Amino acid sequence: MARIFRFTALSLLLLSAYCWADTEAEVDENSDLSVSELLDRANRNLSECELQADVRSEDGPTLIEGDIAIEDEVEKNADPCTSRGCMWGKWNDGKVYIPYYIASHFSSREKAIITRGLESFSSFSCIRFRPSRSSDRDWLSIESKDGCWSFVGRRGGKQVVSLARRGCLYHGTVQHELLHALGFNHEQTRSDRDNHIKVLLQNVVSGMEHNFRKIATLNQGTPYDYNSVMQYHRYAFSKNNQPTMVPIPNSNVSFGNAKEMSRNDIARLNTLYKC
To answer: Which of the following is catalytic: 37, 65, 75, 177?
Structure first.
């Protein structure tokens, strides 16, 4: 029995080392991918390492649009953020302080990537992410679950933001999920989407058509932004390697290539929170 235990422990240690080494190599391999491509890859392909990990959620939330978490099916056809108060509150000093906790299963290097994404908001907005305290009622719990995902807007209490150790730990990906938590949806679901993007539902995976629904977004007076970190790429949810979205009127316009927040992303964030 003791031998079996030692073998199992050694196997787990080797597996952990393999997964860590593979994650290190992945950073260089995926460095040229856009945020949209990284999200697509991370959420479609769960690795053997994740299947062995102890941090997976067996009863996680339903995901729509690839990485937006909802609590029940009713939310599929409504924007849970604009239908009720979802913004994080502003303090007397004009700053919006958002408590966060980074789970202990992240390595120091992984925590540094997450922290850099959190702190980036302070350089261009009044958003201030700070470590949570025992007195906080609402906070973000950043954990490595299945893929990359977040709820939209403040939900109340402990609010999970998933950044899987394998596939999600990139600066732009962290910004993308935090923007969801701050109340923002994907660019291609904007209310004025049809003036800028033509959705080709015939190329969409069956059952995934709802991912292209439009939402009564406010847009904060900013133009449609093909370069937004919230814009998905041309082949998102494709069943046949054909485009699911084509820009109009010029179908050759490049989009979905952002690696971090754009000027318009920053502008609409500052407008929404009156920074």
So the answer is: 177
Backbone angles phi, psi at 198, to 5 degrees: -105, 120
Whether residue 82 is predicted with pLDDT greater than 80 in this model: the reply is no
Instruction: Give the Cβ contact number of residue 172 at 10 Å.
Output: 20
Candidates 222, 154, 217, 171; CA nearest to 191 is 217
Separation between Cα atoms, residue 121 and residue 130, nearest integer Å:
11
User: Is 177 among the catalytic positions?
Assistant: yes
Classify 118 as helix, strand or coil. Answer: helix
Distances (CA, A) of 272 to 85, 87, 107: 13, 9, 34
- The span from the first CA to the last CA of the chain, in angstroms, equals 62
The answer to whether the Cα torsion of 187, 191, 195, 201 is positive or negative is positive
The β-bridge partners of 150 are 68, 161
- Cβ contacts of 18 within 8 Å, gap of 6 or more: 49
Residues above pLDDT 70, as percent of the chain = 77
Q: Average pLDDT of 218-222?
A: 82
CA Rg value for the chain: 19
- Answer for the pair 163, 248: CB distance below 8 angstroms, yes or no: no
- Please list, in sequence order, all residues whose beta carbon lies within 8 angstroms of the beta carbon of residue 15, skipping any fewer than 6 positions away: 49, 52
